[in-house]
Amino acid sequence: MSDQVEFGLTLSNRGVALGITTVKDLLAQSVTAERSGAFGSIWVGDSLAAKPRLESISLLSAVAALTERVKLGPACFASFPLRHPVLIAYQWASFDVLSGGRSIMVACQGGRGQVAGQSEVEWAAMGMDLAERAPRMEEGIEIVRKLWAGDNVSHRGRFYEFDNFTVEPKPVQQPCPIWIANNPQIFGANEKLLNRIARRVVTAADGWQTTFVTPGQFRRAWHRIESQASEVGRDVSDMPRCLYYNCHIDEDKAKALAESKEYLDAYYTTDFTEEQLRVWVAMGSPAQCIEAIRAHVDAGATIITLRFTARDPAGQLRRFIDEVYPAFTRPAADRLAGR
């Protein structure tokens, strides 16, 4: 693995529902990614009905059975606030045991917008108010942590109450990591809200994940988290900073753009603009993809997860391993010299 940035592979579990990939292909890509040594983690998407797909914990468990080293997690767990935290604690603890302590929980409040899908459908079906997603996520994280850490747990909160409940088995990892995913900067949130969201990462999370941001937006969001951490006296210098990103390698950049648009428009049932795609996808020749990825590394990303927005994701995976990844493993002097 590179000592500058760690890469993760994001599997297209929605692609199975869309008929653009198969379970067999997803599992094969997972094995290839681990054996290559280029990837330290494998990720899957998550939702209940907003974007129909293979259920995240089920797919991650299948990947866990075929791998030994890579970390495994959802990018992100958008249905977290829709699921009862007692059940999540039990399911995820079992998954951590099954994977040998390789899980990374990435809690997410879900939301509205172009990439969120029909989230209102999910919340209505569960009889919940979409406006409650942030406090439900916060309380859920609190409950899950308590259940993983102790026995005969009781809780009295805004949304959940229970007495003397024990989750067994406990996760292998103690503590079992919980990250928080957010990207409020793309929705133009005000300063007060941005600070509150950053403070949530500082006080409740072991890592941070974001998406759909320019390098400059990534840097500013992380600086805000650092500022909030300073106010509460927490050192976040070692906190994982993860970018959920996309990649399409093709010397014909116009072709890469067109195929990425076709893929992502179908995936999210929307109509992405060229400007949006250029923010969200590293595309073009290997050198152009390296440049786009490196800009985010320079902005502070320590982990970059990649989904290949192409009709041949296995071929793209191999090209990344052979033609892009090596640029992030050579000594700095060699890179500067063009060697």
Report a brief summary of the structure.
This protein is 45% helix and 17% strand. The chain is of the alpha/beta class and 339 residues long.
Describe this protein with a few key phrases:
339 residues, alpha/beta, TIM Barrel, nine-stranded parallel sheet, two-stranded antiparallel ribbon, disordered C terminus
Give a structural overview.
By secondary structure, this protein is of the alpha/beta class. It is built from 13 helices and eleven strands. Strands 1, 2, 3, 4, 7, 8, 9, 10 and 11 form a nine-stranded parallel sheet that branches. It has a two-stranded antiparallel ribbon with strand order 5-6. Helix 8 packs parallel to helix 11 (286-298). Residues 332-339 have low confidence and may be disordered.
Output the CATH homologous superfamily. Luciferase-like domain
Number of helices: 13
Give the low-confidence spans: 332-339
Please identify the top-level CATH class.
Alpha Beta
Helix content: 40-55%
Based on Cα principal axes, name the global outline.
globular
Share of residues in strands: 15-25%
Distance between the termini: 19 Å
**What is the CATH architecture assignment?**
Alpha-Beta Barrel
Question: SSE order, as H and E?
Answer: EHHEHEHEHHEEEHEHEHHEHEHH
- Radius of gyration from CA coordinates: 19 Å
How many structural domains are formed by the residues? 1
How many beta-strand runs?
A: 11
CATH topology: TIM Barrel
Query: What structural class results from the helix and strand content?
Result: alpha/beta
Largest sheet features: 9 strands, parallel
Query: Mean of residue pLDDT?
Result: 93
